[in-house]
Amino acid sequence: MKITQLYRIEEGNLAGTEIEIALGLLLVKYPHRNTKDAYVPPMKDRKTNTYHCCQDNCQQPDFAANMDALLAHIELHAGRLFKKLKPVTKTNPAKIIVALPPNPWAENDNRGANPDRRVVVQLYIDSLQTVLRKQGIGVIA
Questions:
Q1: Do residue 54 and residue 121 come from a single domain?
Q2: Which residues are within 8 A (CB) of 132 and not within 5 positions of it... i.e. 6 or more apart?
Q3: pLDDT number for residue 1
Q4: Confidence class of residue 2 from pLDDT cuts 50, 70 and 90?
Q5: CA–CA separation, 5 and 26 (whole Å)
Q6: What is the mean pLDDT of the chain?
Q7: Which of 107-114's residues contact partners 24+ apart within 8 Å by CB, and which partners?
């Protein structure tokens, strides 16, 4: 049984990405993909002194033999293959509120309006409030 080392990146764009050493290759597993990317590390006999990316259509498959360059290259592929997230919506969006004028012939006015006029105006104001609330507009009456 062969024991492999597993490195897990927990910060930045590569959070949750795992780097596994297996059969002389580096296998990189992104959290949002099922397949692993393979990288050929520099060889000890110095015939190969760069990392090589085995991914198809890679713009620059050979790059410097240091960890910073490796992480930058992994991040390049991760950034290209990340799923686009839906835009964040506000939990409490701003609400439009309108102030309606009060019924000029309210119950306690002293102008002696007849009850019919008072009721008709109040019904109109109530129906207007209902329509505005259905449209998502708040009403101050």
A1: no
A2: 98, 138, 139
A3: 29
A4: very low
A5: 10
A6: 76
A7: none
